Amino acid sequence: MIDISKAFPGVLANDRVNLRVREGEVHAILGENGAGKSTLMSILFGLYAPDSGTIRVRGKDVRICNPNDAAALGIGMVFQHFKLVRDYTVAENIILGAETVNRRGELDLRGAERRVAELSERYGLAVDPRARIEELGVGAQQRVEILKALYRDASILILDEPSAVLTPSEVDELLEIIGKLKGEGKTIILITHKLREIKAAAERCTVLRRGRTVGTVEVKGTSEKKLAEMMVGRAINFNVEKKKQEPGKPVLEVRNLTVRGSRGHDAVRDLSLTVRSGEIVGLAGVDGNGQSELVRAIVGLDKPVSGSIWMNGEDITRESVRGRIRRGMAHVPEDRHKHGLVLEFRLDENLALKRFDEAPFSRKSGALDFRAMRANAERLITQFDVRAGKGPATKTGDMSGGNQQKAIVAREMDLSPALLVVSQPTRGLDVGAIEYIHERLVAERDKGRAILLVSYELDEVLALCDRIAAISAGTIVGELAGEGADEREVGAMMAGVRHADAKASRGAAAKPVRAAAKGARRGKK
Amino acid sequence: MEKNRKKPQASDLLAAFIASDGRMSILVVLLGLLCGTLIVLAVGRNPGNMFAALLQAMTGWDATRGVWNIRYVGEWLAVSTPLVLCGLSMAFAARAGLFNIGAEGQYIIGLTIAQFAALYLPKVPGLHAFLAIVLAGLGAAAWGGLVGWLKARWNASEVVATIMLNYVAYYLSRWATMQIPGANTYKTPSLPQSAQLDLPFLKDLTNGSTLNAGFFIAIASVLAFWWIMEKTRLGFALRATGFNRDAALASGIRANRSAVTSMAIAGAFAGLAGAVVALGSFGYGRVLGGFDNYGFNGIAVALVGNSTGLGVGLSGLLFGLLTGAQPLMQSRGIPKEITLIISGLVVVFVSLRAGLRMVLAWKRPLPATAGADGATAVADTGSEAPDA
């Protein structure tokens, strides 16, 4: 891809970007959110037309107008958000759009299943072609997407932030798969901002920053630190600085809470947890072990079946969402598009979303004060370094993921909350934004606020938390101090091993832990 | 990719239209008129006559005979009034994410209450009509709010509930109205003058047309719609709920209450339409023999008006114009059905907007979410959300 440019209203997403990928290599594309990685790949996959520039595949100039053109050239893409029909089987999903029929015009599902099984075997994907998508975990769904591309004879595979949705053990599996694919001669373009994965899987790496190519480097000879600097344009501090601090009185107390999940089972079972002021408590666990349900109950979106929730010594089990916000509970939700923002709203409207009905945003008459909203947005934009093309008037849906998340964090922290419930605050964010949000969380803690951090990223929990509680199958299986916590110990607890047993497994190789984690995932299905 | 730069001239223009809902509506209306012209040509008539009829309905100027009669303008505005009000009803619910097919039933409730109020309330000039209108609005608000409550309490589909309640309202109205002493199967005794909406100065101004105080109610309603929706915290909460119910809930907005409020206000608009028709167009109370269809036409009005206050006002005037021009077309040898075809096509084209956007999506930034177009969500319900 040579001199690719693409402008969107207000932004130059790609400014004469150059990308040269060799056949049979794993080539990483690294860049912050909004650096233009996704735009570049969307152009390669035919979702956008470039404003200018040339695309050459195997030395030939090509014009890619739509994904079908891309597929004809052997380019396949695995999106971050899967595009699968949940009620269909794996094979049905894979042939969708490329159905083969037999002589009588009937769908040749058998043949497809056979081919899928073959491919799955060959690349070590371990997917049952007859399983229904809804029965599969996230990792397996991703492998189905990969299979889909392989089924269409893709020789160039674009993986868009594949690890963003995976648990640590699934990421390891994915890296293995990438290795296998490369071994079979496939070319892989890996979009990511996780440096560790680049180091583990990629040979070369092209770094983008603000729509421009910073450079292409050999991964082997480049340190993670150097890569991060190239991406962000300045030195990065990987370690979160945190001073010692004695926690104060309990702010959030969850007592024997049981919450029913959407499938009618008890997603949270008899769970108790305390978060005190001035401490960050990390809830470590594999996705789907009751974290979402627990958070929904704490912030008041779901009513628990039994047990109680206390804040600052008062029972708030029956309090409304609004009541909890008024009491000083802030919430950075796991899914920022679903629960955090109204994407159709302007940035200033979203920044006032939780306080729009109070002064200064609302007058006594019930009319809104838009000037106050704008001023509020301008203040938060500067204070939290939110980048938005048109300032307070930017449509939130047009902003990059990192800046959307910054906007939510800005709004929530500006509530000056006594308690911050933070879910997956850095999911899908780049190094710069992660660093920033981590610093902010620690600053809030230093101010004496209580923070409950739910994260599927063990690194994050280990780096930030004063205390770590591991959750598995809806209960807390163990708690330990954050300082000096051992990764394997927490990992084992996440997999459902009780604290005492986890201690015993300390020092054992990582392999059994991974196996246990896998077992836990299967177990809950 | 040099070729790419020059080629998309036409589609750029189209893209500009599609980018803005307002421009899109104008494009759609022009397309509708164009198709109407072609159809008139196809049946061998002079499309000039069609436009002459439209011109006369709008300005009162009869281009064929060179005569000017402002009465036509009055009739145009009068016939637009209930369309605007019912359009507002549909639009208000749509903005809060609800599909109010019940404007017809709410209209009937408003109409019936207004008739009863006209017949039974003390005949104090001015106050009588005012009270009748207020009661009609309140009654219809309760009728609409009931659906919101069913939705909030039992998660009942507002679409099914409103459709069914339309029939309940219709038969209830027939039965109740026939109980009035002196009523036969199609009308009640005459309504007292104190309850009627005609204003002498409007009559004089428009050369004796049926234009009445209802027109001012429509204007006030458009302004109220705009103010509530765009300027107040209530509107903010409703819009947030309409766009993203989950985020609204998580922000402490009571989405259930929003459902009741928005359906009640939607009902009130339709009820006002009913009152205006009851007290403005007929000198007697009617035992309905069928749906008046203002409520259903309101759906189209809201669609074309993009569910904004001003948009619905203009779109109501357009549909009123097409209705008002019917007899004028007929007298010029143009089949009056052509207006129905035009309004039908306009609605079809508006609904195609989602599809047109999809076609152009690959040239433009991906929408942040699929089906992000909340205000026109109604247009998308039939089609797949454009998932780019």
What is this structure, in a nutshell?
The complex is a heterodimer of chains A (525) and B (388). Chain A is an alpha/beta fold.
Proportion of strand residues of chain A: 15-25%
| Form type of chain B | globular
Mean pLDDT of chain B: 84
| Number of domain units of chain A | 3
Shape category of chain A: globular
Q: If strands are numbered along the chain, what order do they take across the biggest sheet of chain A?
A: 6-7-8-3-9-10
Radius of gyration of chain A: 24 Å
Helix content of chain A: 25-40%
Topology:
The complex is a heterodimer of chains A (525) and B (388).
Chain A: E1 2-8, E2 11-17, E3 26-31, H1 37-44, E4 52-57, E5 60-62, H2 67-72, E6 75-78, H3 90-95, H4 109-122, H5 138-151, E7 156-160, H6 168-183, E8 187-192, H7 195-201, E9 204-209, E10 212-218, H8 224-232, E11 250-260, E12 266-276, E13 280-284, H9 291-299, E14 306-311, E15 314-315, H10 321-326, E16 329-332, H11 336-340, H12 347-351, H13 370-384, H14 401-413, E17 419-423, H15 431-446, E18 450-455, H16 458-464, E19 467-472, E20 475-481, H17 487-494, H18 499-504, H19 510-524
Helix pairs in contact in A: 13-14, 17-19
Chain B: H1 2-6, H2 9-19, H3 21-42, H4 47-59, E1 61-62, E2 67-68, H5 71-95, H6 103-120, H7 127-154, H8 158-178, E3 187-190, H9 200-205, H10 214-231, H11 233-243, H12 245-250, H13 255-280, E4 284-286, H14 294-304, H15 309-324, H16 326-331, H17 337-361, H18 377-380
Antiparallel strand pairs in B: 1-2, 3-4
Helix pairs in contact in B: 2-3, 2-17, 3-17, 4-5, 5-10, 5-13, 5-14, 5-15, 6-7, 6-8, 6-13, 6-14, 7-13, 10-11, 10-13, 10-15, 11-13, 14-15
